[in-house]
Structures are given as C-alpha cells and as structure tokens.
Specification:
Elements (H helix, E strand, L loop, with lengths): L3 H15 L3 H9 L3 H15 L5 E8 L5 E8 L6 E7 L2 H5 L3 H16 L2 E7 H6 L1 H13 L13 H12 L6 H8 L3 H13 L3 E5 L6 E4 L3
Protein name: Transcriptional regulator
Organism: Paenibacillus albus
C-alpha cells in the first residue's frame, strides 16, 4: 500500500488540478483542515486503503441559493451521495453558541433533504475510538457498495456476506449470517472460513465453535 502522505498529496493535487470552480479550488489550495486530514490519516486510509470516489471540500447549494462545503463527499457510481463531516471539539461542543448550533442543524437537515447519507465524526473519536470509527466508515461504505466493487471470484452468497459484515458496527456470529442469507449455520461457517482465507473477513473472538467475525479493517 502506498504511504499515506504520498497517496494524500497525489489525491489532493489531482482534485486541485481538475477543479474548474474557483471557489472550491481556492479552498483546496489552502489545504484541508487538521481534523479532516487526521480522519483521513488515522481512520479512512488504513481502513479503505485508497481515496477512490472521495471528494474534499465538495460544494453544495442551500435553500438560500448560497454555497456550503462538505468536508468529504463520497460519490460512488450510481448517484448515491455520502457526506462525512468532522465535528471539532471546540466550535461544535463547549464553545458552540446558539447561532452556530442552529446553523449546524440546518446544514445537516438540508443535506438529508437532498438525499445525502450523513456521517458526522467527532474529532476526539478519531484518536480515542480509532477502531470503532474504522468500522463505522466500512459500514458507511457498505451502504453504497455493489457486487462489481468486490473481487470477481466471489459468488453471490460470499459477496452478500461481505456486504452484511460491512453494514454491521460489531462482530457477528455464523448464526446471524445464516439467518440473513437464509442458509444453514454450517453453510454460513463454510462461507466465513473462505472469506477469512481471502482476507476479507477476520475472526473477532471466541473458540472454534463459538467464534465471531468482523470485516477486515487493516
């Protein structure tokens, strides 16, 4: 995997060079905020391993015909839209006055009404709840993933098993997967063993018969 700093600089430079909107290009040239960069370095890149379909400082219009910018927009093929917002500890918590709090609520409401799937991330959680945030990101991406974004050698049940794991925010048992797929527990265990061999799923805990599984995050 390419080092984060190299992948990050190449990704950001590409967006700057390809951007024709002067407002957004100016924001990108200033560099991303500390919270956004830390989220990408600690959470997104180790979990996802690329910046594909991820757009920094994405411009959206609001109901007052003004402009707002999403910290990170996830825009995979298919028309679905994901917005990742890094909520800083200062301006979004203790120091948040009534006006800014109302504006934050309006911001999130307008994104929701425009069919964005919103993922707010607290800045403190990036360092204090790293693995949990990585799982959250994979579950977020799981809402967009299609069968074409997974390895071609996987069958339908294996593909759906990975999608199931990505949507969950916790380890799961073979019985839970079996109920989702409507197959036997034994069949679900065989599927999970194969996905572990392909390094798409990891064993989260438990003894041989009572193991739990989770999506691979590193």
């Amino acid at each position: 995997m390419i080092l984060f700093v190299d992948a990050y600089e190449q990704w950001l430079r590409t967006h700057i060079l390809e951007e024709s909107n002067s407002r957004r290009r100016e924001l990108l040239e200033k560099g991303l905020g500390h919270g956004t960069r830390e989220f990408l370095r600690i959470i997104w890149y180790p979990a996802v391993r690329n910046f594909n379909q991820l757009y920094p400082e994405w411009e959206v219009r609001d109901f007052n015909n003004g402009y707002r910018y999403v910290d990170l927009a996830y825009l995979p093929v298919g028309g679905m839209k994901g917005a990742i917002e890094i909520q800083g500890y200062g301006p979004h918590a203790w120091d948040l006055d009534v006006r800014r709090f109302k504006d934050l609520c309006w911001r999130h409401s307008l994104l929701a009404l425009d069919d964005w799937i919103l993922l707010p991330i607290a800045y403190l959680s990036i360092s204090e709840e790293t693995q949990r945030c990585q799982q959250l990101v994979l579950s977020f991406i799981g809402k967009f993933v299609t069968t074409t974004e997974l390895p071609e050698h996987l069958g339908w049940l294996e593909t759906e098993s990975v999608r199931f794991a990505r949507r969950l925010l916790r380890p799961f048992t073979p019985t839970e997967l079996a109920a989702h797929l409507r197959v036997s527990d034994q069949h679900a265990r065989r599927l999970l063993h194969k996905l572990v061999d392909h390094q798409l799923i990891v064993i989260a805990g438990g003894a041989q018969r009572y193991r739990t599984y989770a999506i691979r995050t590193t």
